[in-house]
Description:
The chain has helices at residues 6-9, 12-21, 40-51, 67-70, 76-84, 98-107, 121-130, 154-161, 175-184, 212-220; strands at residues 27-31, 110-114, 137-140, 167-172, 189-193, 207-209. With 221 residues, it is α/β, with parallel strands linked by helices. It has two domains: 6-39 and 92-220, Rossmann fold (3-Layer(aba) Sandwich); 41-89, no CATH class. The protein has a six-stranded parallel β-sheet with strand order 3-2-1-4-5-6, sandwiched between helices. The two termini are 14 Å apart. Magnesium ion binds next to loops.
Amino acid sequence: xxxxxxxxxxxxxxxxxxxxxxxxxxxxxxxxxxxxxxxxxxxxxxxxxxxxxxxxxxxxxxxxxxxxxxxxxxxxxxxxxxxxxxxxxxxxxxxxxxxxxxxxxxxxxxxxxxxxxxxxxxxxxxxxxxxxxxxxxxxxxxxxxxxxxxxxxxxxxxxxxxxxxxxxxxxxxxxxxxxxxxxxxxxxxxxxxxxxxxxxxxxxxxxxxxxxxxxxxxxxx
Length: 221
Ligand SMILES: [Mg+2]
């Protein structure tokens, strides 16, 4: 089946609403933010092009998770600090369509679990508000702890929020987070969002989705 623009043109979102009406299984959604909801990478690469590497191609896409590997000539810690403290970090662009997102949020509770430092929590909130996304709660957690020993994993957060009897739907673009959820909460349904830097990762425990529309189709049918 083809996804992408045709998904909306064909009105499948409307069909999805009909499916929602007959929904008997309750679900709760735990969604990653960077690389799933907001385009962190695109904005970060733009920042590097404008401030540091002016000949970086316009269609440049990150090939690895490790920025120090990707941009060996830069002091990535300094770049990161400047980037996350810039206004740009509160204006990351959407990777999802806000209408379908907000429709989904009227049917199921949506929890964002984002892997950023505590110092950037309010910037992240501002960014989500800027796009008028309706969600239940925003939490910080993930496999990268920014040197903070008590920084929680995504499974830690989900275990606290989970309502027994409800299906856990988890979406992330980092294989480590997906593997952790499947290991710690094996009953959950885990989706990995395709990104250039995770295409080589393979694991039978997740379902790969191409984009937001693909994910929607998977969870409403
Ligand atoms: Mg991510």
